[in-house]
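Lab notebook, bench 4. Still working through the backlog of constructs that have no structural model yet. Next entry is a single chain of 135 residues. Request: give me the structure tokens for it.
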Amino acid sequence: MLNVLIVDDDKLTRKGLIASMPWDKYEMKIVGEAGNGIAALEFLEKTQVDLVLSDLEMPLMSGLEFIQKAQARYPRLKFAVLTVHSDFDYIQQALRLGAIDYIAKVQFDQENFDSILSRLSQRVRKPANKKSSVF
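Model written out:
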């Protein structure tokens, strides 16, 4: 079972994600939620988390800053970013920080939930140092 933390300053977005997505089907469990990066870092100190879904634009600490700090403290932690941004430069920054995926909030609907969770599950569970041999 993968432990998941949802980080978004919009409470309705957090509650909607938690209630709507088929987490169990992909052996994922929501272990917590946070409204900003500071609260999320405090949560990570107390709870084992495998995957964080984080908004990029939040008060107190941006999602990019949160990912950077959390990644330094918890190098095995995986991140997917939630964004309303269509500016690829902003998304690219998150990917460079180690995010395994980005999810556009405008694309949330029942049809996409399965494909989103399937993709995230595969990327989190993929062996970290799997190298392809070239001979």
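Notes after review: The chain has a mean pLDDT of 86. The chain is about 40% helix and 20% strand. Flag for follow-up if needed.
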